[in-house]
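Technical annex B. To support the medicinal chemistry partners, we prepared a structural model of the target in complex with heme C, based solely on the information shown next.
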Amino acid sequence: MTTAALPAVAALLLGASFTSPPKASVACVECHATSTPGIVSDWRLSRHAAVSVACADCHGTEHKGAADAAKARLPGPDTCARCHATQVKQYQGSKHALAWAAMMAMPTFHYQPAVLTDGLKGCGGCHAIGLREPADQRAISRESGRDYGAGSCDSCHTRHTFSVKEAREPQACKSCHMGFDHAQWEMYDASKHGVRHELVKLGALPSTASAPTCQTCHMQKGDHGVMTGWGFLGVRLPLPDDPQWKADQTTILKALGVLDPSGKPTTFLEVVKGAKVARLTNEEWQAQRDRMIVACKECHAEGFVRSQLKRGDQTLREADRLMAEAIEIVAGLYRDGLLKKGKEQRFDYPNVLQFHDSGSPVELRLFAMFMEHRMKAFQGAFHNSPDHALWQGWSEMKRDLVEIRAAAAGLRRVRDGERRAKP
Ligand code: HEC
Ligand code: HEC
Ligand code: HEC
Ligand code: HEC
Ligand code: HEC
Ligand code: HEC
Ligand code: HEC
Ligand code: HEC
């Protein structure tokens, strides 16, 4: 056997059948086997290599060597669509496709350093899963002359293995769905679902023992159109029937800038609609809920499933009660002139979508209560992690509320003291 045949043998042993690259890619593979060997060996492991889809099919043929690397095309979903129209169409209708647009729609988005957005080191690192506007509109790409990270389709089955097995594991979602405001990975990992999956992988349970992954519930039958009923912000239209919950969600919509302080819709509502931030009809919401129930019914009785999901809704309702109370306290500070609206605020009313760029400590607390603790409470309930729902969610919200109340009282005391001090 010649040494040249070794990669082919290795590929066969690893389960991929190796064919030599198609003509257009022979030079690419040969040269890159030296310049970027990891890319070539990953590609050799891929299904693409086995079916003769190679470098030139995705990157074109204009670049021929080190000197003209910028001529290599960097593929996005449109490139994959040539051969995978079904998945691309599903993705285009998903929340993922809107990720870049939703990020840019935030009122204080432009306060973030470009390296963290365009440069993909912060917000942009995760939101690049969305469809992006051309590089020539983006500061960092203009500067470096290269538009990396437009791939989107390499978010779950990463380049250049593009492995469907990788994409089916919950870890494929982990780098983004974790942390501060969307700790779904940690919740799943702590839930019986995640534990069962882990034990199956460790061999403590048979490989066929049932254990749902993120994909079992969110990408049924490989559907790339991910979307949920409540979504990230946990609001929807029409508002809930329950009068107290309706009032509380109205308060929350004011603090999201979707309604003005008097309750009238603002122009931001159009942004919310465009980025599909909330389901806008009962039918739309119910369709997502029904889709979820189908997933659960694979392993649970329908009555069990419905009651569990209802408890998720009820947890959100309880969390909204605390949230609305806190928003009202901070709104009172605006009404009394103790807080003044910042440059990015249209109304004298708290806005939790200003993130960490809110103007005062009491509003930063309100932001954490909304973005970190309310999220943990209801997302933890839906993902069956009692620790997130209670200790990291509900319990923290109670503490936030006490501190916000104390801070508001403090601001009033200072004002009253100043008034008394005046001659
Ligand atoms: C003679 C060697 C050689 C050949 C042939 C070659 N490349 Fe490259 N290619 C390189 C080198 C070296 C770089 C890295 C340049 C750098 O350091 O930025 C590169 C970079 C790239 C990049 C990254 C571009 C970027 O902006 O970072 C892609 C994609 C690429 N090559 C694909 C291909 C494809 C597809 C072919 C065949 C059509 C090919 N290469 C042929 C040497 C080669
Ligand atoms: C199925 C499509 C596909 C094939 C086939 C493919 N690539 Fe890529 N490649 C991508 C995608 C997607 C990216 C990421 C683009 C981005 O970041 O915007 C990428 C990025 C790259 C980069 C730059 C990023 C980095 O990690 O350095 C290089 C170099 C590269 N490919 C080389 C190759 C070579 C060499 C081959 C053939 C052995 C190849 N590609 C085959 C889709 C492909
Ligand atoms: C020129 C056609 C072509 C292009 C372009 C292409 N693919 Fe493929 N892809 C295929 C074929 C053919 C298969 C094998 C299908 C099969 O196994 O029946 C495949 C298989 C796959 C698989 C399944 C791999 C597995 O482990 O079974 C994934 C995932 C995939 N492609 C993703 C992508 C992505 C993402 C892009 C764009 C960056 C892309 N492909 C671009 C033709 C293409
Ligand atoms: C670690 C990855 C990550 C980072 C960093 C990140 N996000 Fe996100 N973002 C996500 C994920 C994942 C979701 C979806 C969460 C969910 O639905 O529970 C999301 C949701 C959102 C949404 C809600 C979209 C909607 O339509 O419901 C907005 C807006 C948003 N992020 C903006 C930002 C901004 C602005 C930044 C930077 C200040 C940022 N994100 C940083 C991963 C990230
Ligand atoms: C959120 C993660 C994620 C993203 C983003 C994603 N995929 Fe997938 N992809 C998956 C999962 C999970 C599977 C396996 C589905 C299954 O169980 O069969 C898969 C499977 C595939 C397959 C193999 C289908 C088959 O039946 O063998 C192709 C082809 C594919 N994806 C293409 C794409 C393309 C093109 C894009 C970009 C539009 C994309 N994917 C984006 C997660 C993702
Ligand atoms: C057993 C099923 C199941 C599993 C496993 C699961 N989820 Fe969920 N997920 C749900 C349900 C139920 C909801 C709430 C749906 C609704 O709004 O009606 C949800 C909601 C979400 C949301 C929207 C915001 C939120 O948290 O309410 C995201 C994002 C999400 N899940 C991501 C993930 C990720 C990532 C994983 C894996 C780490 C995962 N999920 C595992 C069932 C599941
Ligand atoms: C590269 C980062 C990234 C990866 C990987 C990723 N996601 Fe997401 N996901 C996001 C972002 C960002 C959003 C918010 C999209 C928006 O703003 O429109 C999101 C939104 C979602 C939503 C929609 C929630 C809603 O608002 O209804 C679901 C469900 C979801 N992701 C599930 C998954 C699953 C399951 C996986 C793994 C198979 C996964 N995601 C992989 C970044 C990612
Ligand atoms: C692939 C199978 C599978 C799917 C799909 C699935 N589960 Fe489970 N679920 C299990 C297993 C296995 C357990 C652990 C067994 C146990 O706790 O008795 C479990 C446990 C639970 C528990 C904890 C039960 C308890 O008695 O402590 C809840 C709650 C739950 N699942 C709800 C759901 C909901 C809601 C869905 C859909 C959103 C869902 N499951 C989807 C298999 C599944």
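Notes passed to the chemistry partners:
The first helix runs from residue 6 to 13.
Residues 75-155 form one domain.
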